[in-house]
Design a protein that fits this description.
Blueprint (H helix, E strand, L loop, with lengths): L2 H11 L1 H4 L7 E2 L11 E9 L3 E2 L2 E2 L3 E11 L2 H15 L12 E5 L5 E5 L8 E12 L3
Parallel strand pairs: 1-2
Antiparallel strand pairs: 2-5, 3-4, 5-8, 6-8, 7-8
């Protein structure tokens, strides 16, 4: 499984997340325009090679973002908190997460509000960022 597939599987199986966002509205970038809110888009932001005293470690490190889009601040905040609960501290000790470790990077949280063009409520955006490591030895 790729890192995107692993994150997708973890989020889709997390009851705290799917209480708010059905699994079919948790996606990687692609055909997600016009999704009913709330929804989640998750993706790799950057590759982050990991260096040790012995040189470059085998495996990859990633900067990973999970973006939450909701109709209200309170709903978006609750979903973002559920995402952190689902992903922070994930270790590759199950078939679902094999070789994957994720660590929440506190910092960016609320990314702002954007008015929709159709008169519906503003879109609230939360950006939750993680360091992810896959297959490091």
């Amino acid at each position: 499984m790729t890192i995107r597939e692993k994150v997708q599987a973890i989020l889709a199986a997390a009851g705290g997340v799917t209480t708010f966002v059905p699994a079919n509205r948790i996606r990687v970038p692609g055909p997600w325009q016009n999704l009913a809110r709330p929804y989640i888009i998750h993706f790799v932001v950057a590759v982050d090679p990991t260096h040790t005293h012995a040189g470059l470690a085998q495996g990859l490190g990633w900067e990973y973002q999970v973006s939450v889009f909701a109709d209200s601040y309170s709903t978006g905040d609750a979903i973002a908190r559920a995402v952190v609960t689902a992903l922070n501290g994930v270790h590759g000790d199950s078939p679902l997460t094999e070789g994957l470790t994720m660590i929440w990077e506190p910092g960016t949280w609320y990314a702002g509000s954007e008015k929709s063009g159709d008169g519906s409520p503003p879109i609230e955006h939360f950006a939750v960022e993680f360091q992810a490591f896959e297959g490091l030895v």
